[in-house]
């Protein structure tokens, strides 16, 4: 309970700091929106040239997909490379002296950043809606199910990336590994194109990787393109990946801290 009180206090501090740098954060957020907007324009144009649809997606549905992708991608965004910087600079040593695990402080910082930048993202999403005229059949059931789905997706991605960052305890080439992770994410999260349009081998692989359940699954569910069985499958996959990432997080943290201490960090 004390950990979460500290998290709440850190959230208030981080909220004030992010508000002071709100314009920098909004510019950074605009950079993250470039890819989805480009893909939206391309696929909408292709759908119109193909007589109205591609692979079951109309131009309006492509617009819905990529506008939602900008929102889902932002909500589920997670820090990366924190451990590498902290280990190299020695910042981790100071954090270890605190009475709470650094992850609680990072959760607070992440939530504060998303809160501030979401205020700028919503007006931009409205502009995209006006410009591209998306078509979406939103139902109360899909809207209600979207809440636990997107929360699980955000928790899952944060834990996975936080855990992956602990590789920095063993290697200085963490960013090279991160680049491989980013490429896989582009293909298997449905950023480059909806996974329904990808070749069958890639679609099959996507079910075995976490990326599908972080971004593509919440979007498809909100668009009403999934059956009840597929929604349940997605929730089960999210819970399983979250548990695996949580277990790996604590195991790697204990092993990494022992190595860090042994080196004299």
Relevant terms:
265 residues; mainly alpha; two-stranded antiparallel ribbon; 2 strands
What can you see in these coordinates?
- The protein has 265 residues and is mostly helical.
- The protein has one domain.
- 77% of the residues lie in helices and 2% in strands.
- The protein is built from 11 helices and 2 strands; from the N terminus they run ααββααααααααα.
- The chain has a two-stranded antiparallel sheet.
- Helix 1 packs across helix 6.
- The longest helix is centred in the C-terminal third of the chain and has 36 residues.
Distance between the first and last residues' Cα:
29 Å
What portion of residues is helical?
over 70%
Secondary structure tally, helices:
11
Which value, in Å, is the CA radius of gyration?
A: 20 Å
- What string, H for helix and E for strand, traces the elements in order? HHEEHHHHHHHHH
Number of strands: 2
How large is the share of residues in beta strands? under 5%
Overall mean pLDDT: 87
Low-confidence stretches: none
- The tally of structural domains comes to 1
Largest sheet: 2 strands, antiparallel
């Amino acid at each position: 309970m004390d950990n979460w009180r500290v998290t709440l206090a850190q959230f208030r501090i981080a909220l004030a700091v992010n508000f002071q740098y709100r314009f920098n954060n909004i510019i950074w957020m605009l950079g993250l929106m470039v890819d989805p907007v480009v893909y939206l324009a391309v696929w909408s144009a292709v759908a119109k040239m193909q007589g109205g649809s591609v692979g079951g997606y109309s131009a309006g549905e492509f617009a819905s997909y990529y506008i939602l992708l900008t929102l889902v991608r932002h909500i589920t965004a997670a820090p990366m490379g924190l451990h590498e910087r902290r280990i190299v600079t020695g910042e981790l040593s100071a954090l270890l002296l605190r009475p709470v695990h650094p992850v609680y402080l990072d959760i607070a910082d992440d939530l504060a950043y998303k809160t501030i930048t979401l205020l700028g993202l919503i007006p931009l999403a409205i502009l995209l809606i006006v410009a591209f005229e998306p078509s979406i059949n939103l139902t109360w059931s899909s809207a209600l199910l979207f809440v636990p789905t997107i929360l699980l997706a955000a928790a899952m991605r944060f834990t996975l990336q936080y855990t992956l960052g602990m590789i920095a305890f063993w290697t200085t080439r963490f960013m090279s590994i991160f680049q491989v992770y980013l490429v896989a994410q582009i293909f298997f999260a449905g950023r480059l194109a909806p996974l329904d349009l990808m070749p069958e081998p890639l679609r099959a692989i996507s079910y075995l990787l976490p990326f599908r359940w972080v971004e593509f699954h919440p979007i498809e569910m909100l668009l009403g393109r999934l059956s009840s069985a597929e929604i349940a499958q997605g929730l089960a996959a999210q819970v399983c990946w979250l548990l695996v990432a949580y277990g790996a997080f604590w195991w790697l943290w204990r092993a990494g801290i022992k190595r860090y201490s042994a080196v004299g960090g």
